Each structure stands twice: as C-alpha cells, then as structure tokens.
Prior knowledge:
The protein is 47% helix and 21% strand. The protein has 762 residues and is α+β, with helices and mostly antiparallel strands.
Amino acid sequence: MLKLRDRPIRQKITLVIMMIASAVLLLAFAALFCFQAYTLKQHSAHELAVVGEITAHNCAAAVMFKDEDAAAQILGGLRTMPQIVSARLQLADQQQLAFFGTPRDETQIKAARLESGFRIDGDRILLAQPVMASGAREGTLYLLADLHATTSQLLKLYGGIFALVLVASLLVAFILSNQFLHLITTPILRLAGTARTIADHNDYSVRAAKVCGDEVGVLTDAFNQMLAQIQSQDTALRENENKLAQAQAIAHLGYWERDLITDRLMWSSETNRVFGLSPEEDVNNFARFQELIYPEDRDMVMQAIGVALRGGPRYEVEYRVVWPSGEVRFVYSQGDVILDEAGQPRRMFGTVQDVTERKLVDEVKRASKAKSEFLSRMSHELRTPLNAILGFGQLLERQKPTEVQRKRVGYILSAGKHLLDLINEVLDISRIEAGRMQLSLEPVCVADALEETLDLMRPLATERSIQLSASADIDAGVHVLADRQRFKQVLVNLLNNAVKYTPFFGGVAVSYHVPGNEKVRVLVSDTGPGIPAEKLARLFTPFERLGAEQSAIEGTGLGLALSQRLMDAMGGSIGVESAMGKGSTFWIELPLAKSPLERFPRDGTDNGARQPSSEPASRSILYIEDNLSNLALIEQMLAERPGTALLTSMQGKVGLDLARQHTPDLILLDLHLPDLPGWDVLSQLKADSTTRHIPVVVISADATKRQMNRLMSAGAAHYLTKPLDVNKFFQVLDETNGIDSAEQSPAAAISNGEVKEACPSP
Ligand code: ADP
C-alpha cells in the first residue's frame, strides 16, 4: 500500500480538505454542546430553586407540627420530576422529618453542610431551601438533582447530528474538490510530464507550457530557464566531447583503464583504432591486450607495468603492436597507478598513441642528417687533395712552363676546377634539401648585382667574342628581397650558360622589368641554339645536360638544378622560354623590396684603401697544419717571397708554443688538427697577451658560412678556403703584412677565391 506521501497530489489535497472540514465541524459541535450543557445546568438550577421554594412553603405546616406523614407526602410529589433524585426535609435542630433517595444521596446532602443556596458538583446540583413559618426559620429543605441522564441524552443527540453533518459535509467537500482541484493539479501534472519526457529521451530542447500566472506559473518559467541553461551546457559539452574525440583521432591518442582487482580493461574507441581493431570490438581483458603486442616487445611492456605497480617510475613505454591485418605499428603509452586506502594498487589508467608516422619522420630526418654529414665529410675529404692539385697546378703555371707543360697544367687545373664546382654544387643542393642552407634575405639592388655579375662574365664573353649587354634603362632604385650572394650565384650561372652555349660572335643581353607591384623579373637572353621543347621538362634535373655532355662545352649539369632550388628557397621562381635556332631567355623572379634608406657597404673588400706591399721586409709566418702536402704547397708558394721565414707545426699545442716563443708576424691556421681543434688554438692565441696582436688567417676546407662567421667573430683576420686560390693567398699575405691584429678593421674578409663578404666582428 502506498504511503500517504507517495500518493498522488490530488488525493493528498482532497484528504487534507476533508480533514480540515472534519476538524472544523468537530470544534463547532463541541462548542455548541458545551454551551448547551451549561445552559441546561443553569436552567435546571433555576427550576430546582422554584420547585424548592414552592415545596418549602408547602412544607411549612408539616414542619411546624412535625407531621412526618404530611412531609413525606409533599416530598413524594417531587418524585414526578425525574431529575430530582433525592429530597430531605429537616427541622431546625437538624432532625430529619422526611427523606427519599439513596443512602449515598443522604451522605452527600449531609456532608455538604449547606445552609441555603446551590452547590453544583459535576452533574449534580444540591439546593438548600430554608422552611419559614411565621417569619422564623423552622427547618431546611434539601433537593438533589442529577443531570447525568439529561446530559447523556444531549450528547447522544449532538453526536448523531454531528455524524450526519460530517458525512454530508465530507461528501460535499469531496465533490467540490474533485470539481475544482484540476485547476491546481493540472499545471503541476503537466510540468511533471514534461520533466519525465526530458528524463526519458534526454532531450533538453523540450519546454513546459505555462498555463497559469500563479506560483506554478513562476515554477514553470524557472523550470524552462533551467532547461535552457542545461541545453546550452549540454551543447557545449557535446561540442567539447566531439572536439576531444576529433583531437584524439587526429593525434591517434586513445584512453585505457585497467581494474587490477577484476583485471578488466576498459578503453576508448580511439584505442581500438590504435590497435587496428574495429570500434565495436570490446577488448575487456588483459590477456587479449597482451596478444596485440608485438611478441618481442611483450616482456618489455610487462616489465614496465610491473615496475609502475611496485611503486617505481611512472609507466611510460614505446612498443610495437601487430594489427589483425599483420601490419606492425609503433605506439607510445603512458599511465599512472591509483592506490586504495591501504596503499595497494587498485587501478591503472593512461593513454596510448600511434607514433608510427612520427617515428618514420624521425627516421627520415636521421637519414637525411646522416646524408648531410656524409656529404659534408666527403666534401672536406675531397677538398683537401684538391687543394694540393689546384695549388701545385697554379704554382707550376707561375713557373714559366713550356707550351706543352702549360697545356698539361691547364688540363690539371680545369679538371680540378670542374671537380671543385661539382663538389660545391652537390653540397649546396644537399644543404638546401636538408633545409640547412642559411640564407640572409635583405633588399638587394638589382642594378648593382647585375653590374657585378656582368663584370665577372666579361672575360669569358670576350674570349668567346660574345656581345654582353645590359638594357639602358636600369633603375638603381629597384631592389629585390634576396640573399645577395645566392642571387648573384644564380645570375652568374644563367649568364655563364648563356655565354657558354651561344656560338662565337653571338649576343647575350640582360634586362629586367617589374610585372606587378610585387615582383621583379630579371631576364637573360641569348642568341644561342635554343633548347628543344621536349627537353625543357628535364632542364632543372640534377646532372641532366640535355646532350651537352657530348659537346666540348664543360659543365656539371647541376647549375640550373641548384639555381631552381636557390630561387625556391628565397621565395622566388625560375623559368625559360626558348625557340630553336633563335635563342633562349631564362628568367628569374624575386619579391620586390623597398630600397633601404641608407645604403651600407655590402662587402668588406677594401679595394684601393690599402695597397699590398710589393716586397715585404723580413717576415716570419707560422703555419699550423697536419697535412704534409698542404704544408709543402705553402712552403713552395712562400718561396716566391724571399725574406719570409716559415715556421710549421703539425699539432695545435706545439703551434701555440711556437707562437708564444717566436711571436711570428702572421699565423696560418688549419682547423682540423690531431690534438686540438683549430677553434681552440685561435681562442688561446687571442686570449694570450703575447700572441693576441698576431693576425691569424684560417685556411680550411670547411666552406660553410656559419663556420666562417664563427671563426671571424673569434678574431681571425681572414678565412681562406681550400683549394687555395694562389692569387688570393698572396693578396691576403700582402694585406696582413705589418698589420697588428688588435688594430684591425672590424670588417674582416672571408674569401673562398670567388666571393668576399662583410663580417662584423663582435
Ligand atoms: P651545365 O653545367 O651543363 O651548364 P646547367 O644545369 O647549368 O648545367 O644546364 C643544364 C643544361 O641546360 C645544359 O647542359 C644545357 O644543355 C642546357 N642549357 C642551359 N642553358 C642554356 C642556354 N642558355 N642555351 C642552351 N642550352 C642551355
């Protein structure tokens, strides 16, 4: 049976109404009954007084004559009145003359000792009425009335009426409440219905209809407001859940949890994907998880779990999994252990991520780094013997050889230069592909760059009787955003090709225009043979010479491939238009740049400021180098300078000692020494007050800009790259003659025989 509080609200209200009606009726009837009982008593007392007075008057003669019979007769007449239960007539000396009633009544009358008047005791009223004769009190008449029967009758009557009225009023209350209660309950029931619908369907877009303006109406508004808030929170929550799921899918990151007591596993659908399982599959036990691990990695994973459970370091492990398709993937998992109150492991939870792609990228990066390191090492290894080949070749050339010898030396030098070009270009391409090419993008004046490259090309053009021209309207204000050196390198390559491939007496023209407001296009046109359309697609492929390898024209097939990569790296582009028999026009495009307000000198060359001394006086030079052929080369080169004393050391430490003992006028320093890196030797020379002032010229096969800048910043006076350009070497020798390094200009020179560049010292 339902408890009252669980009953429908309608029943509760009906019940309450009926209870209230009953209580009100009961109270009303009780008040009425009490009033009636009181009135009855008053009335009975008054009646008793009247009867007493008449009877006392009638008894006066009997009392006078002490006539018991007459007295008994008069009192007996009172028996007709049902409420009078006892009467006693006594003389003045209290002697009883007549009596009727029970002995209890007699005792009550006597005990009352009432002289005259009333005494009411519960339902009983005692009246004492003096009996007077001839003006004197001759006796007393006692009348005792009992109202109990009358009151009981009254109570029964009232009880009956009350019951009837109660039934009638409850009936009326029930009918009326049934009629009108729907006004209160319907809105509440509707609200309750709405709440149930929402709970059943989890649909927070439903709203309760407001049907009244009372408290239930206010409740409906508040309910709807609350629903709106829940709906917006629910939407935000769903969006966040979706985002989280998407993020997990993108990152291939899944969640897992393991109950250590039941050994049950619980994990997200993304974890299923990480393990190559369908989203529906429920991997709920640890044994199944173990099956998914690559067999060779299982022990490692179990060990990592064991260590974490024993309170060791956090669970963090990378292992392989085998997908049902057989594919092996790499995953990275981490997790934490949750302890119970007793400090025992209770649960483990964590994440697992598919890191296969990242591992592959790392592998590729590692391979690319290894490739770059290999190329850099190879280039160094190749440059060192080349240094000897080109150096001695140039020396031989200077020693007035016979015609035959000159030709042979020419072959050696041209083959050596070809090899050097090849090494430089391969190295540049590999640097760009490894993303290690360091470019310094700055506004570069196009007119200046063209002029400088045209100057470089003039000797070759003259040699081949090629007319080299630049368009007349070159504007000195036009700048492009480029790395000055690399921009010139590309221009040199295009001009060099144009001059090389154009037959004698042809023409090569350079021009540029600004097609939009964002780019500058530089064009190199020639009147050469042109390039067949079907070969154009292969023009920028490394080592692709498009048949030129069968001709006498020298080349590596790397120039255009490198130019294209350099242009890409600088945010530019390169292209060609060619017509067979008419010639080709190569073009490059670079972003237009604003002209800098102030133009700083772009290179550190000091043309004309300091004239090389023609014949140095007695001079000592220390050469620290571990390669014998290089030592021999420098020795022979210096033989051309009489009065120069050469000290040599094949080790860094010995070199430092020699420098301190002899304080030479110049130190030539190789960087790859067996005991100390050349960098350390330079630092120690610059830290020592005895040797600080001596200019140090670094001679190294490492032609990277970073290395050059590093050494120049550390105090080197010059940086010459191997293979040595003999002329450049002598030029540097002259420039450093009589110079105190401590007073040297902040713009020292770096040179690889082709390029000179400013390098501010710190
Ligand atoms: P190479 O060292 O052979 O000159 P490049 O990469 O600079 O290498 O050029 C690739 C090839 O493109 C050349 O071998 C040549 O066949 C062709 N080529 C380049 N420039 C011209 C040009 N101006 N006229 C004709 N052919 C050219």
